[in-house]
UniProtKB/TrEMBL annotation, chains A, B, C, D:
Enzyme class: transferase
Protein name per its UniProtKB record: ATP-dependent 6-phosphofructokinase
Its EC number(s): 2.7.1.11
Membership in a protein family: Belongs to the phosphofructokinase type A (PFKA) family. Mixed-substrate PFK group III subfamily.
Organism lineage string: Bacteria, Bacillati, Actinomycetota, Actinomycetes, Mycobacteriales
Protein localization: Cytoplasm
Length: 342, 342, 342, 342
């Protein structure tokens, strides 16, 4: 019987528990696999900190946010017990034949390296930011977009009542997918993303044109967006952690600038952590469940070094390094929506 | 300047207004098109009943459920003024150059015929049932699945408190997509769909096995599912309308049968119309907006006889008759999830 | 140290777990009490079926629907081990000093009788129907109203798109509180409740007047409403269980009658069990938590025979029999809202 | 026929439109009153900027957030046309017999003064902060609490996955009602409100005790809370606007302090404006509707100088100055919940 260890790494993401459940239920039922969970991501693997994962432990998890295994930003090459050789010894000691790593870009890169050094490892891509290549979507993204969209719906009425410009900052340090989708869904009048520079002048033009036809401007901005004219000044503020939303972020910089240049009262809201926690949407639960089920096939077929991914409505397999490529919002997708601005 | 008439036909579907908004905003801005709306689906076209649709009329519609144009089950070949020739005369009289028809299977088939008889028509596929081919998803489906999933989450606690089997009937007369996705998302112990027969014996086996490990069974059934052993008796009840959920439907037949054969108290809930109304999910708003925008390109390019569709993350074009083919849940998708039953 | 047994009886109700949590946390912390839970309502008490309830067991329960103790319609005078004398013996055997009974009208009445026969018992009123006297609200009611209101919001768009009359049946066998509040919140054009007869003629007049000004009528009906002109015919259908919504209920009777008499297409939806399960609203969580905390004071003060209740923003104490009096929608409250009909 | 002008003043608040609708529907139907709306609060009254408000204009507004009349922080004694004498002239010129002012503390105080100077004015209390005396609740509060509670539910899973302390800042400059209710509903381990000082030491003790039993601490803090030991330093930051949540507020001060003193990683979220916009809860819609209806009775009876209020389940009347008294969380209510901390 193949004994598999699962770990969840990086920032919290709605659907992690659904992946774990899907893997354990299918793996035990179809492939006769056995499962344990590494606690707190790679730390649990490196330190050999495991808990048993049987069918009864994962029942009812599809709708539960977070991860029962815990997560951290610890890496597999970190600490005295890190590195492929040590990890293989730990796996041997624990009688674990294979590893399923659920994580983002960093996890994919580290998994690739471990695989190259002989670890039997497969993966499931995870990021609310949706910025991994060779998969249509990652689970967690749909939930984050839904939460941001509901926030836009709420801010809109207040904007209209006060004739204010509302500026909502959503997650997306390097890629603007959440802003693009939530902004489109919420009918934003400007969507600002890291991939596409827009000048303050242009932003104020959109705001003014909305105000001029008697409506209240809604601006959605990804946390990683910067104004070209202020990049230098701004960069001195620093980015002090990977997934921590910068309270005092770009929305707080933008709102007073917009107010100053347009005369439209502007208010900033930084959505922050509520985008990455809680009950997943049905879309994310289905996607996460299917990915979790499919990754057990990779183990059964000893197809190491691959991750599962979504292509259309099919679950596909891709190399670790393909997935780790960043997926930015392509210019044509941004231009498509930019038509709706203003 | 091209003058376009838009119509929305068939059952209500979250996202219709977002399609209309996307088309009008892009069409006027990019292609210099002008828009009117036909009221109540094909009726408005056949009877020449139109309203103006300019940018200000469609602002703020992305998040609004229903259709500002109204909808009906009227067909374009219906009544004394129906048929391609009459319709062409009406279009000429109103100075309308092209038609955008937003509708389901029936609309696609009728549009195909009108196109064959010379009408300049293009289309946007619409069905909460997701049962149209050559598109990954139709807008409205994600919202219906989310609503059904939230209902499962609620029913689950009551099932557990009372140690009851809860039977939830969702929409899906011919295809079980809503049941498949919501059942998977909600962690159902049995999902019953029209495409795949399951015997009462098998259903009761799942229910019993869940009960035996101390949990409360959750059964999700599509309205079009029938038990093989009772098809004859059942069919005499008749289906009296196209989109009307059968109160007194299959869930009401199943629940007492399950209770009788397993001894587990069972309760039926028929979700009904709340699946097809109200605020669309962000996913559906984005999809509907993109489809509405893309369909104006077809008109601009005079690419008559086609509909827009979702392929992966791209908006594609397909023939009317391709789309009108029914898309059933394929056996492998059902078997994939069937592993999780019981 | 006082050892207390808690039970939850009757239909499922959002907030039950919050009551249990509030009682255990305050009781252990402030009064030095110890807790066990009787399983499945009175059955657990009668049969001596208990589980330990300490602080760690109840942590995190405020937001969880249902009851971890299970519930049933079993009564304390039922079976060979029922009755005050037997129950006292069971309590003595288990070393339990006092009982907290969380339940509705039946539970209050039974508790009153047990108290009269010497059982040290106090209570917490519970019903989603809100039909208990001497308390402003019962927990669970706010959640049920919110769910029904969201359903009305969804049905409204479909009604408008199709120009249909939507008829929504909500819970309320004897009292129309859910219908009154949800109908008011949802802007219903007619609210029909058991306490106040309305003729079919009057209902159709409201429907027609709404239709005549170009809108789509929304009718909200409590399951216990009957049309005076058809009471006899209707009563032959029978009411076969206490909390089972009658699929094939009054909405299904009303919709075709309205359609027949007004010519307005009408559709029925029976909301059913989703009204009584799942995550409680914040209002219900706060109310349930406060009631659970307060009931431990009654035990500490040996104030047997009383229940806790909500008066304004205060938690008060009332006799079992005061609470068991049914609380109907008073005529002035119905007339107040009736102004908005049509 | 009495002609009434309605205005909505101060910060946005879910339920404003429901009040307007309730007043217009009852006033026209029962009292034969006629209505206009002043735009942007007191500005519309002072400048005589009005729109007609008939039944058709207010239909469907119960579920709509914001205010169709607009709102502002303009006061009735502001500008060259302000003051009772000028306002009376404006009312005379417009043929308006009475004013209904919907607003908070400032509005109540200003209305009191206007009433004293002869203006025929009545009022409806409005604040999401719930800090007005002589009414059990104000509309908007329940919605704000629900939104904050849902945010806590989401943050909780992320806290647990990362073993972090999550610090959520909610509205409440002077009174901690939102924090108290949402914190209770969300099962917070510490609730910090302006009315009740807690030392950093005490807060860290709660955080540590939660961490020590293996759980993730949740701290809910009202924006107006300050740490006694840092009040001086903190006050220099200034409060630059009335309803603007301080991004960079108390949560951002607290989180790093907690992390530093306990070693538990801590993250801040500032909920901000999404607490005061969007669709109202059913509770707030019912309350707002009833208040709107009842305030027309005051006009009909010429009972000037009063506001409507909620006492238990009844709508009562209170003096302007009674209502304007601030309502703080009483010590016993805070102590009641403080039992649950840690």
């Amino acid at each position: 019987m193949t004994r598999i260890g699962i770990l969840t790494s990086g920032g919290d993401c709605p659907g992690l528990n659904a992946v774990i459940r899907g893997a354990v239920l299918k793996g035990t039922e179809v492939h006769g696999q056995e499962f344990v969970g590494f606690l707190d991501g790679w730390r649990g693997l490196v330190e050999g900190d495991v808990i048993p994962l049987d069918r009864s432990r994962v029942r009812g998890l599809a709708q539960q946010g977070g991860t029962i295994l815990g997560t951290s930003r610890f890496g597999p090459y970190q600490g005295p017990d890190g590195g492929a050789q040590n990890i293989q010894k730990t796996l041997d000691r624990l009688g674990i034949d294979a590893v399923i790593a659920i994580g983002g870009e960093g996890t994919a890169a580290a998994s690739k390296r471990l695989f190259g050094e002989g670890i039997r490892i497969v993966g499931v891509p995870k990021t609310i930011d949706n910025d991994l290549s060779h998969t249509d979507y990652t689970f967690g993204f749909d939930t984050a977009v839904e939460i941001a969209t509901v926030a836009i719906d709420r801010l809109r009425t207040t904007g209209n009542s006060h004739k204010r410009c509302m500026v909502l900052e959503v997650m997306g340090r390097h890629a603007g997918w959440i802003a693009l989708h939530a902004g489109t869904a919420g009918g934003a009048h400007a969507i600002l993303i890291p991939e596409h520079p827009e000048s303050l002048e242009q932003i104020c033009e959109w705001v003014t044109s909305v105000r001029d036809r008697g409506r209240s401007p809604m601006v959605v901005v990804a946390e990683g967006f910067t104004l070209p004219e202020m990049e230098e000044a701004y960069s001195t503020k620093g980015l002090d952690g990977f997934d921590r939303p910068r309270l005092g972020g770009i929305a707080e910089v933008l709102a007073p600038l917009i107010e100053k240049h347009t005369g439209v009262e502007a208010r900033a809201t930084v959505l922050g952590h509520i985008q990455r926690g809680g009950v997943p949407t049905a879309f994310d639960r289905v996607l996460a469940t299917r990915l979790g089920m499919a990754v057990t096939d990779l183990v059964a077929e000893e197809d190491w070094g691959h991750m599962v991914a979504l292509h259309g409505t099919d679950i596909a397999r891709v190399d670790f390094d393909e997935l780790a490529e960043p997926k930015y919002v392509p210019d044509e997708r941004y231009q498509e929506m930019r038509i709706l601005f203003g």
